[in-house]
Amino acid sequence: MTSRTGAPPRTHKPFVAVLAVLGLLAAWHLAGLFMFTSGFLLQRVELHDRAPPCAPASRSWRMPTPPRGASSGDPVALEAWDKTLREQGECTLPPRFQRAVVWIIDALRYDFVAEALNSSTTPNAYMHNLLRTPAELHKREHGASIMAHFVAHPPTTTLQRLKGLTTGSLPTFIEAGANFGGAGRVCEDTWIAQVRAQPGRERLVFVGDDTWQMVFADLFDESYPYSSFNVEDLDTVDAGVEQRMLAAMDSGNYSLVVGHSLGVDHVGHRFGPAHARMPPKLEQMDRIVQDVLARLPDDTLFVLLGDHGMDATGDHGGDSELEVGSALWMYSKRPFDPGAHPTRRAKQSLTFFPDVSALLDVPTPTPAYQPFSMLPVAEHVEGHRSLPQIDLVPTLALLLGVPVPFNSLGTIIPEAFASTQQPLGHADSRLLRALRINARQVRTYLDAYATQSRDLAPFEAELRALWHRALQADAAWAESPSADTARAAATQYTEFTRAALDRAQSVWAQFDHARIALGAAILGLTVLVTWMLWRRAAHEESRVLARRVGRAAGYGGAIGMASGTLVGAATHLRVWEGMLAGAALGALVAAALGLQAPVEAATHAAPRATSPVSTWLAVAVVGVHAMLFASNSFTMWEDRITLALLAVVLVGRGVLGLGAPLVRWQYRIPFLAAVVLVLVRLTAMSRVCREEQAPYCVPTFYARHASTEFADNPAYALSGPATNSPYVMIATYVVAMAFADVVRRLLMPSRAHLGSAATMLQWIVRPAMLGAAGFWLADWVHGLERWDEPTRDTFLHIKMGVARAVLGLLVVGAVYWCYAPLSLSVLREPAPDTGRPRVMILGFGNALGSAFLLGGSLGFVFVFLLSQPMGQLALAACFVATVLLAELGDHERDARMLAAVKRAEAQVEPPTSRPLPTLLETVCLVLVGFVAFFGTGHQATFTAIQWRVAFVGFTHVTYPWSPLFVVLNAFGPMMALPVFGAVLLALWNVAPHRVTKDAMPPLPMRVPSDALYMVLGVLWYLGVLAVSAAGWAYYFRRHLMLFKIWVPRFMTAGLGLVVADVLAAGAIGALLLVASRTHRAFGSSFV
């Protein structure tokens, strides 16, 4: 009877047992991560209330008479005054504009629009003073123009920014994932919905980024969406926006036109801002601005804005200065001030109007002026006029004469309501009326929010006091109208709305402590059970271990699920969540108790000795790594610290090798350790830098030809442009050509470099690696500015064709590897004594290890294709280092075995079978994975995600391949290398057990059990890191740097652990194929 793989049951069953154990661990990991993240990264409470419809606002509004004592702060009188204003107050203003054209240029950074005055670093020819029209009109037409540094609340992903720009609410961190997963429909009130609800409205038209179609599907009468993820296409969306937006304006039949262009963002992602492709794109945007203005009616407001900025490599998602620093320009052909002469322009900027200046000088948590490093010279002494993006929401609503969206926390932009004819103190001052409406709406939202959540309870007394002070100041103005009392009221309303925003922002993520505790308990117990499994896997067969832990987990899980059902029904947890947590915890506790039983005697092989000293040294290294997350500084410098830990371990192993019992080992062990150390040090020379590492980190991953101009700029000190260096690409060709020879050389000591290995390395691995290097060369050539569009399209097709050819070649290689014989060759030579031919099987001593190495090389080439050139060099170095670690560990085990034999001869103790790899060897492999992660251009930050690899072989986002490519690019080096190396260590230089006619059947090989033992060591290390990252993220949950430091690191640890689980199952599956071929060739059996 055979299995589907062709292996007999005795070959098949041990590997199924290993997969069962790994599957159980993966289920526990997923359960723990789900429970923890569902409690730690919850969305804030969304209120689905709508601002009620308003009666048409009048040009003048009569202030009610306040109760006696309200102006002096009497609490009872203030409550009565509050009720009077709530019932009789305004909810909007007469519309200043009848319609609006809102154009979002994705990733429009502030310095792309503002005038770059001469300084040591500006203007920059790639990005400054190219989109010139807004700055020129802002200088010339003061009363009709507002320009500001437009600060986005992180995370700076498009979906979150659209929510903020339309609802006025704050984003939550976990929603960033929805930006790439198709979720995120907006159910909250928006200013667009308010415009749509107005009687007598005309068409609402949208064109551009299809994210709008996803989240605002029913708000527009006409929609023309374009795919938002094809970063290779720099022009199609912009051309569509230009055509459709201008056509809608030409028709004249519209109340609102919204456009969202993507070209600037795509240039940034593709090449970075400091690249020759950016100037023509910004000039195109400037030309479209001029076309819009030529069609702009007098009663229409034009708003040009960016949803976020971009960092020095063109990426975004985090909260660095360049990522959050977008631009805002509001313009009309008639002044914002209704009392101003329609053709005479104000003599000074609206920001310098006395009433506006007084409000901007009010000390609030949100500064009205900020410096911007890309524009060191500012128009104002205090810095650049700066405001949060959510301030646009109440401003637009009141300018268009609609109610402010219910959930908005923004404050009106005072420049849009300032007036010289009706200043503060005037009975009909639009500025004070707008602030009053704005503050009332925020107060209504806070009251409604308090009924649904206690997030803001700690600030309730403070906010109530600020609100009463504002009411008191307003009552004083009502009793004694004057400029001073009006300014005091306006100031108090501003302080209230800004304080509400600041306090809400400080609790923008709520924490469910019950879910967090359950998740942490599941993860922590999984780490404990993994450790216990690792210790027993050294002595018990895989089937025995799987049966023991499976039986205990089944009973415990059933009891836990029943208990969890009752707990879920009695608490705020959903019933199925209680069942999940109960089942996981019950199974883990039962498994831990079951693993306490005495070790079942091995049937087929003697237990192997392990080194307790090396085990505790490994535990110490893992403990140091895990404790890094207790400090934000250590977490930020994890790349340097992991390299240092690996170097210390390698030096220690090299020094200990000097005491090996044979002279050749005394040379080879230190030599191999030194070579690995050199390789990882070379890998560490490739890096990207976190923002927090400036100015002590110098990036090397991308080309740096433009970064010298910004040497004194902390932001640009982090990275050069996001283009690859041609010199590095030449080096990748050299590496791609030599890699097959290097692997062949590594197989030569075991004579396993002949046969199928030679065929695979020569005809699959080498051509595929050359193609992978060629893809990025074609990508670089495709991006050069010198080509016309037909030539560029030709290079695009060449690039796509090369990538698909490589992928096809890897598929062919995988099929060949599955069916090809082991890498063996037969040598016949005459015996020296008899002269009869003697047959030698070359490669027999490493038949399993060489076959697994060849299969792993195919996976390596796949990740090599998905890595950018500098990452390809780093990945190749770490792959070779991993194989050398297998060779180093083999020498160390041989030395320990020989030492045991010598002790036996001295009658100290009997020798055991060949020792197992130590936990310290496993720790080395995991640290090499981390060095590879950082060396391939990654950090535990969103901005380090290399989105461009989603388009390797595709011109558009293609599911599931594009997300898979991004995941493998990020986690392949960090997780695949340790898992591959762990299994390789269990197989390296392990000869098959042959079945011969004249001899007793050999003992079954412990290959499945040894592979499980090694993989469990990797998963234990990664599990410890995940628990530590989760625990310290929770501990620092109110820290200022939580969402910048600890949350990304926890997400990296959690996702990495899940990826490692999947890769471990894949590695065992590949090992099963190797074992099946070994059984067919030699009759070997496995336990």
Question: Your description of this structure?
Answer:
The protein is mainly alpha-helical and 1087 residues long. Among the domains are: 94-421, 3-Layer(aba) Sandwich (Alkaline Phosphatase, subunit A), CATH 3.40.720.10; 725-867, no CATH class. The protein has a nine-stranded mixed sheet with strand order 4-3-5-1-6-7-2-9-8. A two-stranded antiparallel ribbon has the order 10-11. β10 (825-830) and β11 form a beta hairpin. α23 (638-657) packs across α30. The two termini are 18 Å apart. The relative contact order is 0.11. It is a multi-pass membrane protein. The chain crosses the membrane at residues 516-534, 555-573, 579-597, 609-629, 641-662, 669-686, 726-743, 763-782, 802-827, 839-864, 923-945, 965-990, 1011-1035, 1055-1075. It comes from Malassezia caprae. Pathway: Glycolipid biosynthesis; glycosylphosphatidylinositol-anchor biosynthesis.
Give the structure's gist in a few sentences.
This protein is about 55% helix and about 5% strand. It has about 1100 residues and is mainly α. Among the domains are: about 95-420, Alkaline Phosphatase, subunit A; about 725-865, no CATH class.
